[in-house]
Specification:
Elements (H helix, E strand, L loop, with lengths): L25 E6 L1 H18 L4 E6 L1 H5 L3 E5 L8 H6 L1 H18 L3 E5 L2 H13 L4 E4 L11 H8 L2 E4 L4 H6 L5 E3 L3 H5 L6 H8 L7 E5 L4 H21 L4 E6 L2 H13 L8 E4 L2 H7 L2 E5 L2 H8 L4 E5 L3 H9 L10 H9 L11 E3 L5 H13 L1 H18 L7 H16 L5
Parallel strand pairs: 1-2, 1-4, 2-3, 4-5, 5-6, 6-7, 8-9, 8-11, 9-10, 11-12, 12-13
Helix pairs in contact: 1-18, 4-5, 5-6, 9-12, 10-11, 10-16
């Protein structure tokens, strides 16, 4: 007779969420986009270690579902980009939000966690908080850059805000809102000491050659504004740095086709840039200097400990409107500079990371700033040391993961409302 006993090393089975055990917790999570799915999966794994019989429901993707999550709707329903796209789908989004709120009000979960997607989630959270359900918003909107008073609206929606950046809780505290810094998950995924040799082996780049990684954006709309000046700048740098290897990762096939067309328009020197399918992290790790578009990629380059030059352009009309309405509350744009200012890090000689925005984002200026970094090894060393310090700060100086700290902050609320229910 064959034994059905599991080996001792096997993971405990995930309970069937359709049939929750009486007295167990029900935790609702609403995630939008791929990044939210990853955060949600890490959070579920950490919460399940605290509440082994919990039921997890709401909106999530494949990663969350692999952790035993019951998704009521497709996560791509919330994966929209840009004002015009949201307006186009607004009637459907409003119907979805109404149905979701009704279902959650009927279920009455122990807590509702909205992950990012603030334009959708904050409205859901506010309605549920008004109905006395416990709500948490995970990933603070950029209140330090856009309309700080938005923090008050977030406070009306969430009992607690979980922040990825250490300077954010102080902003919420000014408005009397409970906010906790839980660390940035990307800081857990990058080693404190980066592996340049291994990355160059993966990309088959010579170990002794100078390398420039160029990342002009992952969307076609970004490439239409940034692609040509970035590639022209790389060509200028290659002409001035003997033996330079230029690597350009493409996020997908459409981006690669656009980059191929742009490269055909710009005269190249002896070594044509190496165009990669994906491998953005490896390209950063392999590089001596990174030239990239402003956005989350700047945080990734910082965690890879690579000196960088940041450029960006938005549509001229959008830029003029933002300036006229005084919507932007900061004079710096890239996350490394924002974090350095908040942490009091100053290595002299201007910003930690050169920023060339809007009209300054030209091939000539991008090339000059990039060449300056290649020529100044002392500056590069100081930048790397500052990045190491910021990496530690994003991890909170602790050994546990961001998902574990987020789970602890949520569990504290659950257990306070339901003592003895854990």
């Amino acid at each position: 007779m064959t034994s059905t006993k599991q080996p001792e090393s096997a993971a405990p089975p995930i309970p069937d969420s359709r049939f929750p055990i009486p007295g167990s917790q029900t935790i609702a999570i609403i995630a939008g986009e791929d990044s939210g799915d990853q955060l949600g999966a890490d959070l579920i794994a950490a919460l399940r270690r605290r509440y082994p019989q919990a039921r997890f429901v709401g909106i999530g993707g494949a990663r969350m579902q692999r952790e035993g999550f019951e998704s009521w709707y497709d996560i791509h329903e919330l994966s929209l980009f840009g004002f015009s796209e949201v307006i186009l789908h607004l009637p459907r989004l409003l119907r979805l939000r109404k149905a979701l709120v009704a279902r959650l009000l009927e279920l009455k979960p122990d807590v509702v966690v909205g992950i990012d997607a603030p334009d959708f989630n904050l409205g859901v959270e506010q309605r549920l908080k008004q109905a006395a359900l416990l709500t948490v918003h995970y990933v603070s909107p950029s209140v330090w850059a856009w309309r700080e008073k938005r923090a008050e609206k977030i406070g009306r929606s969430a009992h607690r805000v979980l922040c990825l950046f250490p300077m954010e809780p102080a902003i919420y505290a000014k408005h009397g809102i409970d906010a906790r810094f839980v660390g940035h998950p990307l800081a857990d995924r990058f080693a404190l000491v980066s592996d340049r040799v291994g990355a160059r082996d993966v990309l088959q780049l010579p170990q002794a050659a100078p390398v420039l990684a160029v990342l002009p954006g992952s969307r076609l709309s970004e490439l239409s504004r940034l692609g040509q000046p970035f590639i022209e700048a790389a060509s200028r740098v290659a002409a001035a740095v003997p033996g330079l290897r230029v690597v350009i990762p493409a996020a997908n096939a459409r981006v690669r086709a656009k980059l191929d067309a742009l490269l055909a328009r710009v005269p190249q020197g002896e070594s044509r840039p190496l165009l990669l399918d994906g491998h953005a992290h490896e390209a950063m790790l392999a590089a001596d200097v990174v030239l990239l578009a402003s956005g989350t990629a700047t945080l990734e380059a910082m965690l890879a400990k690579r000196p960088m030059v940041v450029g960006y352009r938005v549509a001229p009309m959008s830029y003029r409107i933002a300036r006229a309405l005084k919507m932007l509350k900061t004079d710096i744009y890239s996350l490394p500079n924002i974090l350095a200012r908040a942490s009091g890090i100053d290595i002299g000689g201007g910003l930690l990371v050169p920023e060339l925005m809007q009209d300054d984002c030209t091939a000539e200026k991008l090339a000059a700033a990039t060449l300056s970094l290649f020529k100044d090894s002392e500056r590069r060393g100081a930048v790397v040391a500052a990045f190491e310090q910021l990496h530690q700060a994003l991890r909170g100086g602790l050994d546990d993961q961001a998902g574990d700290r987020a789970a602890a902050a949520i569990a504290e609320l659950i257990d306070a409302r339901n003592p003895g229910h854990g």
